[in-house]
Write a sequence for this structure.
């Protein structure tokens, strides 16, 4: 074998000819059309933010329940579904011709976010709010009534306000209404090929299947706060002692216990007790302060009075030894 590793011109020509023949026979890359590629358009980087969106959705459940209850006149059941990343054009193609869409800026996120509420849900809320039972409309409307528009505006503002509250855990946000549409074709949230993160909530204030409320975030908008979202996701990746104690404390705080107060302790002889009849009067002497007793322990002293037409106890002094000590 020659020590000279340099190919001759004839050898190079032979190799190039063989490569061209091989490419034509096997249908190489040159056989297909060129594809457009958007630099920086890949959504893979943003997947780290999706777990944080799921946790925000879990925190949003209770706030949505509190928001919707005054409208529905009933305690709703609210569930959140895992966030998913989709092309905006695919999501838009699945929407009906008539739907409630509210576009909000959500600074410091770039662009805007989209709130979608089903029209039938709005109609049922109006019926329940004005004394009905939330019956579904007999026919599908093509536009909202003035009453529905009014309630829808209040509902959307309340939902976005609750969303801003849960976002405070990540970064302070300032929501502002940009516009409302009922035709999905006019919802200029993102391009058809651009990726959006969709968070969905199933809300059921009445019996039967629930209605969907969706919040859409353009992936490009999430990138501006992706470090904060990723950091939040990593922070909550596993159970922490402080979080566990906080949740346990909150759960224990919801436990209801019986508290009672004793106004007087009259003493009777056994013979007097045996001779009691209807209409007898037992004299008692009321002290200035009466005890508040929980689980057999005196936890406070208070004075008896009245508030809003009901008897009430005003706490005047807490006992040094509290309940559980």
């Amino acid at each position: 074998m020659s020590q000279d590793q340099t190919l001759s011109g004839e050898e190079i020509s032979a190799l190039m000819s063989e490569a061209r023949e091989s490419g034509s026979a096997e249908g190489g890359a040159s056989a297909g059309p060129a594809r457009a590629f958007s630099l920086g358009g890949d959504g893979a980087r943003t997947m780290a933010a999706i777990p944080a969106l799921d946790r925000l959705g879990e925190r949003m459940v209770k706030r949505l329940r509190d928001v919707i209850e005054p409208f529905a006149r009933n305690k709703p059941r609210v569930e959140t579904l895992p966030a998913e990343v989709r092309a905006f054009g695919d999501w838009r193609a699945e929407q009906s011709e008539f739907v409630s869409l509210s576009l909000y800026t959500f600074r410091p996120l770039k662009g805007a976010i989209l709130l979608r509420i089903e029209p039938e849900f709005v109609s049922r809320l109006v019926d329940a709010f004005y004394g009905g039972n939330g019956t579904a409309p007999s026919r599908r409307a093509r536009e909202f009534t003035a009453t529905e528009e009014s309630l829808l505006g209040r509902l959307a503002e309340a939902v976005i306000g609750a969303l801003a509250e849960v976002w405070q855990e990540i970064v302070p946000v300032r929501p502002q209404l940009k516009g409302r549409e009922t035709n999905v074709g006019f919802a200029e949230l993102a391009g058809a090929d651009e990726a959006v993160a969709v968070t969905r909530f199933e809300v059921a204030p009445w019996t039967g299947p629930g209605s969907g409320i969706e919040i859409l975030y353009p992936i490009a908008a999430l990138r501006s706060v992706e470090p904060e979202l990723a950091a939040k996701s990593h922070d909550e990746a596993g159970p922490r002692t402080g979080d566990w104690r906080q949740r346990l404390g909150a759960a224990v705080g919801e436990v209801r216990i019986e508290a009672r107060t004793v106004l007087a302790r009259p003493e009777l002889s056994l013979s007097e007790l045996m001779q009691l009849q209807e209409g007898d009067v037992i004299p008692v002497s009321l002290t200035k302060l009466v005890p508040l007793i929980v689980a057999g322990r005196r936890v406070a002293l208070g004075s008896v009075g009245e508030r809003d037409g009901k008897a009430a106890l005003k706490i005047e002094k807490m006992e040094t030894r509290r309940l559980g000590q």
Observations:
- The longest helix spans residues 50-72.
- Residues 299 and 320 are 8 Å apart (CA to CA).
- Residues 25-31, 37-45, 237-241 have pLDDT under 50 and may be disordered.
